[in-house]
Amino acid sequence: MAAARLLAAALGAALGLFAAAGKMKIVEEPNTFGLNNPFLPQTNRLQPKVSPSAVSGPAHLFRLAGKCFSFVESTYKYEFCPFHNVTQHEQTFRWNAYSGILGIWHEWEIENNTFVGMWMREGDSCETKSRQTKVHLVCGKSNKLAYVSEPSTCVYSLTFETPLVCHPHSLLVYPTLTEALQRKWDEAEQLLYDELITDQGYKKIMKEIFEEAGLLKATEEKEVENKKISLEFETVEKCNKEYKQLSKELKKLQDLLSQHGIQYKGISAENTSVEHRSQKLATAVTT
């Protein structure tokens, strides 16, 4: 009997402990993965506005895709997932701790035949615009997110160190292109050297090459808007000034074509003077 009473007492104590444990409040660790945590329910994940662009650029950087690197500063944890996104998470136990998307992989920034940064755009809304982040790739002994700043409101700057960019040619654009696009680039260089195209024409060709390669995203709306603005003149004097400048460029190109024995068939010289066209424009404006 004594043994039975002892067993019952021990069982009762154990049940009491389980009951007490059931009443304990479980404090969960703040969300440090957000959009990148496949184990979170879909409703609890950060919701991106757009899908990431395709992986592009130097092939030796492709191995970074699917990996994430974090950096903690003060009470915030930043997470950079190359070719995917950048997120920010407040490391506090507040019930409404902030977690947000600072940008989705969008395109490369290219200068002087070199990849100079990765742009993450279309992040969470910030007043009238979306948050965006530029990631700078610098040489380092290991892959790590080394520095985060916010140079302007809702525009972030990340520095990512990696041994993958230590070679002086590791971020050159030309080797990443197909043979067809390399030929197109070579032709543009030759045309510029022969002065058969202007710097503006050269830059336009290069932009088309980078867009075709998937390194830049085409911005059709911006191009249409720029064309619309370029065709609008506030005054007849401004229009006349622009026309004179274009006439000089046209004359220069005609002379170059003549030097290379290329025939040029343009509009007739009749009624093409600046004065005549300005007079017609002034008449049209007054009427």
Automatic annotation (TrEMBL):
Gene3D superfamilies: Mannose-6-phosphate receptor binding domain (2.70.130.10)
Residue ranges the record marks as coiled coil: 236-263
Taxonomy, superkingdom: Eukaryota
Organism for this UniProt entry: Rynchops niger (Black skimmer)
Function: Non-catalytic subunit of the N-acetylglucosamine-1-phosphotransferase complex, an enzyme that catalyzes the formation of mannose 6-phosphate (M6P) markers on high mannose type oligosaccharides in the Golgi apparatus. Binds and presents the high mannose glycans of the acceptor to the catalytic alpha and beta subunits (GNPTAB). Enhances the rate of N-acetylglucosamine-1-phosphate transfer to the oligosaccharides of acid hydrolase acceptors.
GO cellular component, one term: Golgi apparatus
Keywords, alphabetical: Coiled coil, Disulfide bond, Glycoprotein, Golgi apparatus, Secreted, Signal, Transferase
Primary location: Golgi
Signal peptide range: 1-21
UniProt-recorded name of the protein: N-acetylglucosamine-1-phosphotransferase subunit gamma
UniProt keyword annotation of Secreted present: yes
UniProt-annotated location(s): Golgi apparatus; Secreted
Ranges of residues in domain DMAP1-binding: 173-274
Keyword Chaperone: no
Record GO terms (molecular function): transferase activity
InterPro entries from the UniProt entry: DMAP1-bd, Gtb1-like, Man6P_isomerase_rcpt-bd_dom_sf, MRH_dom, OS9-like_dom
Subunit structure: Homodimer; disulfide-linked. Hexamer of two alpha (GNPTAB), two beta (GNPTAB) and two gamma (GNPTG) subunits; disulfide-linked. The alpha and/or the beta subunits of the enzyme constitute the catalytic subunits.
Record-annotated MRH domain positions: 66-168
